[in-house]
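Help wanted!
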Amino acid sequence: MMAANAVDIVEVGPRDGYQGIKPFIPTAAKIGLLKQLIAAGLKRVEIGSFVNAIALPQLADTSEILASCRDIPGIVPQVLVPNEKYGRLAIDSGSRFLTFVLSVSESHNRSNVRRSPLESTEEYRSLLAAMPEHIDMRLNIATAFDCPFDGRVAETDTIALLDLLVPMRLEVELCLCDTTGRASPDQVEGLFAACMARYPKVTRWALHAHDTYGLGLANVYSEWRQGVRVFDASYAGLGGCPFAPGATGNVATEDVAWMFRRMGISTGIDLDRLIPVACDGATILGATPGGRVRHALTAIDGSRK
Amino acid sequence: MMAANAVDIVEVGPRDGYQGIKPFIPTAAKIGLLKQLIAAGLKRVEIGSFVNAIALPQLADTSEILASCRDIPGIVPQVLVPNEKYGRLAIDSGSRFLTFVLSVSESHNRSNVRRSPLESTEEYRSLLAAMPEHIDMRLNIATAFDCPFDGRVAETDTIALLDLLVPMRLEVELCLCDTTGRASPDQVEGLFAACMARYPKVTRWALHAHDTYGLGLANVYSEWRQGVRVFDASYAGLGGCPFAPGATGNVATEDVAWMFRRMGISTGIDLDRLIPVACDGATILGATPGGRVRHALTAIDGSRK
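Answered by r_m:
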């Protein structure tokens, strides 16, 4: 598994980053970028979602992308699913790593998957029952800290939902998601501390941080300090905020990789190879790129010329 | 003084932010922006430097700006000085709060003030001897973590310099500066912890964070957690990095204020009033603005229209 002094960065750009981009990114371009990301040292990539293609046309080619992964040595692809039906479809398409997502807040879950959180909880139960043993499971808890509609989410609400979900399967990577980017590091620390103490048998913990308000690395660092070793990030900071057009979303992979490099923590990422991919990603038509390190490092390179 | 659940944000835009901007910002415009910053709830402002006006023509009007502060109720202006001579000039011009700056790294100190760190240490001694009792003193330790020329600065080097400086005057606000923005939060934590333990009688500790690589808020948060309560910041993130043209510099005041607001910590800042000033600051000719919160909040406001 992971070295003691290492973290796993899960590249979510191809799913969370692309899904909000309107102009369809050609499948061949997506596969080309995926190969470049793996060549830069990334391994785990959320390559897409099995969802209603009418609702998310950008991700309609997920099964093609998944099939292409057979030709990308080293990649560990994961796909997001919102319910049992699409979970089965993902497994039938050859997925071995599923991300199931539901939101703590009723309004966000209904907006996202047209179900109440309790209905999604039952979908998760059905999916687990239908799942072969060898499938890895990531459980994404969206709006774990804050909801774009309802504002701050109480720690007790998130824990109440987890009390239902966690006992269903302990062999899971449990990811708390800062969907809005408004979770402050003290809040993130508080919830993770409470959850890690309450559910000590969960296999792994992960953080999905956004950087809309500049808190991405602050939250990643504070959770690293608490022992979290899996972090979602999106190359070029792809993934805007649907509720704040023009604002950035996911924390940038290159920013997270750069911080850990400064800390002497291994991510397996070769920044010299990742930065050009991030520069390419930032030019995708319709994208809202974010992140700082891409600018800082290319500015320095520019000044050396 | 400060409430228990409060922090002081020192606005350094008018000094650190403006100094790298080539086109001269008219003095009246500077004073107008200063008034707006105070109206937004800021109190402490580094309004300029007493330095060689040929080296830093942008700050040549510091004594005029200082004089104008008499008509700005509530402002606590501080001015930066690099040696005894300019320190005396600042005091003679009515300054009651001086920031003395020197760098740990020889190369940066020579580049910045044309002296060795030891020569600057003697300047500090002379300045303290010349200073009337009622003058407040901030001591800025530049390149405390990292140097643009030499890279990472060893903790032992910074402490060796502080061992000379600290005993000269304990009644000081001692500020460790991340001059390059490359200090990672674990490094910042380590040095502050060592210094706060070694010099327990220093009046106050402060952090000057840059955000060039996205680590501004991570470093502010980790020092807040260790008990630091004074943070430098620059509205609109003004203040580029002279060694990475086009890259951003100081952490943005509005980002710091926003994080602390989410944490329930008082800064005295009214963000609704600060954001428009930051938007104005970002349009200053020749400026390299930074920060996230300005974009995020104005994008949300835009989406509500």
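OP: Thanks! One thing I noticed: The first helix of chain A runs from residue 13 to 17.
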